UniProtKB/TrEMBL annotation:
Highest classification ranks of the organism: Bacteria, Bacillati, Actinomycetota, Actinomycetes, Micromonosporales
InterPro entries according to UniProt: CRISPR-assoc_prot_Cse3
Residues spanning the membrane: none
UniProt feature, compositional bias: Basic and acidic residues: 126-136
Protein name, as recorded: CRISPR-associated endoribonuclease Cse3
Chain residue ranges for the region called Disordered: 115-136
Gene3D superfamilies: Crispr-associated protein, domain 1, Crispr-associated protein, domain 2
Pfam family, one: CRISPR_assoc
Domain of life: Bacteria
């Protein structure tokens, strides 16, 4: 059974600061929530500011089994606080609510990249890949707001959603944060992510595809905090 968790993090703790510098440390911490994580335990997560306070962060994690997050609170939260630091809820009610035509507010942090055989400034590695007899193309990041919005809207249908139109019949989808994340793996290889955080309104067009997108995540970089779609009831629309 899948579970969705929320863990409060203290931004002044050394471990939390390490989480912010290198997404690999967060991924390792989430896998540490299971006594024997295996290939079946695919974890999606997103680290972000808490909506109710500037003084704490929240780690949202979607897991296939019930996790234990005490080690994260001990290392990166407020272990002695009287306030509950961990919230773990079954995810089945969310999946059951995904029905044809239903509308949701959504949030997604994604690694917005596309594939091309003609990059403007190919790297040495990309040049090598493109010289193969049957080149498959190379990944290139979308850096402008318009391209990142287009990246999202072009993929919503395959994920089982459609953007709800707002004023002037434009999609009610907004890009609220953009970032370039760079860090090194233990091997020394550098990883660069071109990230975009989206909010908006979507309508379910294919419930099964939508559930798959929620459970499996979307786009590349899932181990680094990308691709987790979260849903919430939409706010009432104004009729004036």
């Amino acid at each position: 059974m899948p579970y969705l968790s929320r863990i409060w993090l203290n931004p002044l703790r050394t471990t939390t600061q390490a989480y912010l510098r290198n997404p690999q440390t967060v991924h390792a911490a989430t896998l540490g929530g299971f006594s024997a994580p295996g290939d079946h335990e695919r974890v999606l997560w997103r680290l972000e500011s808490a909506p109710d306070s500037r003084h704490r962060l929240q780690l949202i994690v979607l897991t296939r089994g019930r996790p234990s997050w005490e080690h994260i609170v001990e290392q990166a939260g407020w272990p002695d606080s009287d306030e509950p630091q961990i919230l773990v809820r079954p995810y089945e009610p969310v999946l059951a609510a995904v029905s044809l035509g239903r509308e949701f507010a959504f949030k997604l942090r994604a690694n917005t990249v596309g594939t091309t055989k003609t990059p403007d400034k190919p790297s040495v590695t990309q040049k090598e890949r493109l010289t193969h007899d049957r080149p498959r193309g190379v990944r290139v990041p979308h850096r402008t707001v318009s391209h990142q919005i287009e990246w999202l809207t072009n993929r919503l249908e395959r994920w089982g959603f459609a953007a709800v139109t707002g004023e002037n019949d434009l999609p009610a989808v907004h890009l609220t944060a953009r970032d370039r994340v760079s860090f090194r793996k233990k091997s020394g290889d550098q990883v660069v992510l071109q990230t975009a955080t989206f909010h908006g309104l979507v309508r379910v067009t294919d419930p099964q595809a939508a559930r798959n997108a929620l459970l499996e995540g979307v786009g590349p970089g899932k181990a680094y905090g990308m691709g987790l779609i979260t849903l919430a009831p939409p706010r009432a629309r104004s009729t004036t």
